Amino acid sequence: MPTSAEPYPRSVLDLLAVAGNRPVFEHGARTVTGSQLLGLVRRIAAGLRRAAIGPGDGLAMMLGVTPEAFATMIAGYVVGARVVGARPGLSDSQLRHVLHQGIAAVVTDAATGVEHARRTLTVSELMAAPDEDGPLRLSGRPEDVARLVYTSGSTGTPKACAQTYAAMNAAWTARPAAWPPAIRELASRLRRYLVFGSLSSQVMMEYGVLTLAAGGTMVVAEPPAFPEAITKYRASASVITVPRLYRLVAAQRSAPADLSSLRALMVSGSPLEASRLREALDVLGPVVFQGYGQTETGTISMATPSDVPPSVGFPPDVIDIVIRDANGRPVPPGVDGELHVRTPAQAIGYWAEPTETAEVFIDGWVRTRDLGHFDEDGRLYLVGRTRDVIIVNANLYYAGPIERALATSPDIAEAYVIGTPDENTGEAAHAFVVPVADRTPDLDSLRTLVSERLGDACVPATITVIDETPLAPNGKPDKRLLAAAIPRALGERATGG
């Protein structure tokens, strides 16, 4: 636990003060030092106070990736607001949902108004306010919600995970003395960390704060194309999704770029199949860190490049994990069950969603809905999700093992499985596969592969070859878009396609 009695973001402000004249942010030709970024935080916090934004007020951020955007988010915590990141790519209905959940104002880069917003503030007008005299006053109250972090919405309306100021203060990201071993190893590689997309991303922002604490620099990647951005900005680290990692590995095989500056790729968003991880390590070198966590909990575990696939590493001592069977009983090492997790910085529930909260947040624990096990040495392994299931003839099958079976084919780069209603079996599995470059997969061989490994009930009713996986705004594979293609796949099957 932190020793400071002051609320979050004191730890971040201290990092900026210590940085002083060291560059902490690069945006194009512009370099911003720690002192300058701290000055931006002071001015924007003063502007928020003049705009009557204070403790408990909902403050939505619709900002680009700039030093001012980073400073605005930190300033929101300074005044004690409930900071909400409205990520790019939300549908109109999703944005309306976000901005109607007790939002007092929306902060934007431009002067144009925001549809559904009660009030719009711009960064420029906030920065025009006179600075306050004396030490920066922190107004966050421990029990207040400091931020709402929205889940992906891949199953419907995004849910907002509510994290208090006390939880933010308990997080170890900005406190090097509290770093677990895997994070300490990662931090040593964050000299130049690429930021892109949106600082509303929990992962992007957390690694940004970790970069500050590690003495590194956040570098804005425009555009965030790989491997070009790594080469152009001489980046040492970046967040990367599984599909983007696969594409980077393929690009390096066909036309290698100079990635000598690269020290760490933090894989996020979805599981990484063990054979693909080995291939990435072989092609890119010992740079792949596989993080496991949830919006509800933050980071749970992290595998370093030296960890043994498919383990996701050793969870830190400050994180409690119990693996339970379907009856809620703890299971021994080697036995799969559902992970129940308790972390110092976890959310307290879903904002304005009491029913959902009661299902997931139970007696201080978070039901992850993830399946996994420990080995005898304490390494954590993931095997699927309890909700990612297909019920065939009243028997329950998980999509994860089917996806992994398909991905073991040398012809397949990515595989995703979805369950939909079926007149004959109740539900049926449908697979979408991205082939390895210049290869044409034999669909009958893929069906045989699944049958031999998992049984006939797991064989997909259709297997559709796609050129590229559609991604949701958060970078994860968008299974809703894939599901929309299933009727077309069924039609092709009916006609022999």
UniProtKB/TrEMBL annotation:
<dbReference type="Pfam" id="PF13193">
    <property type="entry name" value="AMP-binding_C"/>
</dbReference>
<dbReference type="InterPro" id="IPR050237">
    <property type="entry name" value="ATP-dep_AMP-bd_enzyme"/>
</dbReference>
<feature type="domain" description="AMP-binding enzyme C-terminal">
    <location>
        <begin position="402"/>
        <end position="476"/>
    </location>
</feature>
<dbReference type="InterPro" id="IPR020845">
    <property type="entry name" value="AMP-binding_CS"/>
</dbReference>
<protein>
    <submittedName>
        <fullName>Class I adenylate-forming enzyme family protein</fullName>
    </submittedName>
</protein>
<dbReference type="InterPro" id="IPR025110">
    <property type="entry name" value="AMP-bd_C"/>
</dbReference>
<feature type="domain" description="AMP-dependent synthetase/ligase">
    <location>
        <begin position="20"/>
        <end position="351"/>
    </location>
</feature>
<dbReference type="Pfam" id="PF00501">
    <property type="entry name" value="AMP-binding"/>
</dbReference>
<dbReference type="InterPro" id="IPR000873">
    <property type="entry name" value="AMP-dep_synth/lig_dom"/>
</dbReference>
